[in-house]
């Protein structure tokens, strides 16, 4: 149902759109334009996006047969791709880039404007290239020994969180628990002892910002139309200002140190660096939280698969400390010796993802020698239409197959073009995917070995998705998902821990 702020947002976008829309003649080589399922001229697609978020793109690609087609959003055309061949053509064109989208999010979502925004804007558009330098600075800190150290800090935080959960005898909101646990472990590993997310106002503020973030995109009266997101962002920003004033970054991860150095060298003031770091939470948390929830959800609802994975971890990834008797789950051993768990993890992400990797045309492009894309147009590649389609996986593309990504004599190369797009599409792949995978698999392993989880309703019912949380491509849950927790009888009294020793960082994940 459309709320009042949806109506206000539609009005604002419409006012801009009528002033700017469709002045140029259509080139006959452009991909076909399709109308909205809601038969309302001009506004139909906008209403669809407001109601269903990014998942709306997947709905459209399931309905229309074209390899690539467009929708008109008044001020811009968005082309949706559902063909692996067109996807490959996109990957070969340098003029179809992600960089302008980073600048857009810096402006609309992070709230950075003026000289700081120009310092961060991509050089091809006349800016200082700060965002590009920032991404280059981040990459070395998310591999090798830097990643190992961050993983080691992160997994040490997981066991106390699960230990506390195991003692609960009341109803537990499973999604809320995932949100807090992943937030605490991820941010503590990144920001160090002075982690601003330790303040409840910062954690709550960030999630208020993240969960209604789409209302900030028009940039029209954000403090009114997107009041919850705006106020939440400001609360988190206040926490980060204190963090940088106390120089907390000096005792943080290599990632946080590198980010601060790159932004300072780009000429940003501490106030702008603090704002930028609030938006960093979108990359760090927006997908990891719902992903953790869905892995737990889809694993515990399948008792036979859960039993197999418990056996696999027990046989291949646990060592018992001779002095303390603790059962220690070893993340590198899961990576190397638990192919069913790693494959199941990827299959759940494949099935659940509604991500839609985006590119912007920085010049006119003739794509695949056939489709004319005008400068300024947006191309979006809904993952469900390709990674979940028969063109990639054949007749069983809609089936849940936990062994889909396991190498076998019959399946020597599980990789497919477009077959797994949760972490993006080459050459723009999520740099933090290995950190997120270590964290999520660590949480899932601890829960699977220690606990039984049962929904209060008695069945694993499908919760509603939050369509306003468009920073996430993993269908974040709207509302609570109450469960009951009890310790497994087979392991009652056992003490647990998780470790991530050197070399544990890189998982054998598929990429498109």
Automatic annotation (TrEMBL):
Pfam families: p450
Cofactor: heme
Gene3D superfamilies: Cytochrome P450 (1.10.630.10)
InterPro entries: CYP450_monoxygenase_sec-met (IPR053007), Cyt_P450 (IPR001128), Cyt_P450_E_grp-IV (IPR002403), Cyt_P450_sf (IPR036396)
Keyword Secreted: no
Record keywords: Heme, Iron, Metal-binding, Oxidoreductase
Record has Lipid metabolism as a keyword: no
Family label: Belongs to the cytochrome P450 family.
Name of the protein described by the UniProt record: Cytochrome P450
